[in-house]
Amino acid sequence: MFTKRHIISTREFSKEEIDYVLSRAEELEIYAKGEGGKERKSDLLEGKILANLFYEPSTRTRFSFETAMKRLGGDVINLSSAEASSVAKGENLADTIRTVSGYCDVIALRHPQEGASRMAASFSSVPIINAGNGAGQHPTQTLLDLYTIKREGLLDGLRIALIGDLKYGRTAHSLAYALSLYGATLFFVSPEALRMPEEIKMDLKEAGAEVFESTDIKEVIKEANVLYVTRIQKERFPDPAEYSKVAGTYRINTELITENEEVIIMHPLPRVDEIDAAVDGTKNAKYFLQAFYGVPVRMAVLSILLGNGIG
Ligand code: NCD
Questions:
Q1: What is the mean pLDDT of each run of 10 residues along the chain (311 residues)?
Q2: Which residue owns the Cα nearest ligand 1 atom 12?
Q3: Cα separation values, 149 from 30, 137, 142, 144, 153, Å
Q4: Which residues fall within 8 angstroms of residue 278, CB to CB, at 6 or more apart?
Q5: Is the Cα dihedral 68, 282, 265, 231 positive or negative?
Q6: How confident is the model at residue 216, as a pLDDT?
Q7: Residue 170 C-alpha to ligand 1 middle, in angstroms?
Q8: Rg (CA), the chain
């Protein structure tokens, strides 16, 4: 499997590798909750250290990496703001990575620049996990998204609508690539200005994916079994006026769900106003469960990467 390698993009995964992560996550799920006393504790990564290097805000990704490592008996060191580190003194990323990779066994890196994780990999003596590189990719989010879809029994013959900011949304980019391995039908729903980049659409079509585009959720909701809703990535807009034009474009509410009572609603979170709070209590809402699945999935990724006798 992919012991000791960097995880930068979902394009670098085969379907077999992804399936393996998902099945490992399933085995580790009982440990992810931390319930059940001593026999439900794992020491698979005892003595190993994860460095969380986050140069952009994060709640779920950073915490679930930390929880995953701790549930496996490992330790975590954290950089949660550039201001609190030597970056504030002018240190460049290469020097930070060269230094930090001497203090740990694996690094989870989130950075606003798309080239950051690949560059970091070339300076690191330990595996780099891309935990979000600007508008690029977010591969471990994709693994937990796929895990959620699989746990809902929907991975085979999936028909999924990716909704919202498909231009800047890294979770949508990573997920679309991975889904092309599963023969999913993809509906891209976005405002005109935030369409899925041409180059990604071309790659997907080359990989044999069926891709449809629309600006209106109502056009696709009856066709889809999953709505994957995303936040408009305000921080990536060069011009705030352009953001105001598209802010609040889509809103999933209980009335919309009546058009397809079976549809599953996912969201990588955080949400701003894309999903009404009234949807949270419906059987369709899976986004908080999805956030929890970040723990078993990252446990699987970390244990495979650090190669403790498995994988
Ligand atoms: C996403 C991200 O950071 O790309 N969040 C996450 O990791 N769960 C989505 C977002 O910020 O909109």
A1: 84 96 95 78 91 95 97 92 76 93 97 96 97 98 98 96 98 98 97 97 94 97 98 95 94 97 98 97 98 98 79 39
A2: 231
A3: 18, 19, 10, 9, 6
A4: 253, 254
A5: negative
A6: 97
A7: 8
A8: 19
Q: Which has the closest alpha carbon to 30: 307, 295, 311, 309? A: 295
Structure confidence at residue 237 (pLDDT): 96
What per-residue confidence (pLDDT) applies to 1? 61
pLDDT value, residue 80 = 73
> What residue's CA is closest to ligand 1, atom 11?
270
* Short-list 256, 261, 264, CA closest to 288: 264
Question: Residue 205 C-alpha to ligand 1 middle, in angstroms?
Answer: 25
Q: Quote the pLDDT of residue 309.
A: 42
Equal fold, 10-137+294-305 vs 153-285 = yes
Tell me, what's the pLDDT at 244?
A: 94
pTM of the model: 0.96
Would the CB of 140 count as within 6 Å of ligand 1? no
Quick check: CB of 132 below 6 Å from ligand 1? yes
Extract the tokens encoding 97: 């990575």
Q: Which helix (H) or strand (E) holds 214?
A: strand 210-214
Q: Does the structural domain 10-137+294-305 have CATH classification 3.40.50.1370?
A: yes
What DSSP state is assigned to residue 20?
A: H
Name the residue ranges covered by the structural domains of the chain.
10-137+294-305, 153-285
Residue 181 Cα to ligand 1 middle (Å): 22
**SS3 assignment, position 300:** helix
Distance (Å) from CA 295 to ligand 1 centroid = 15
CATH class of 153-285: alpha beta
* Residue 233 alpha carbon, nearest atom of ligand 1: 12
Atom 8 of ligand 1, nearest CA residue: 268
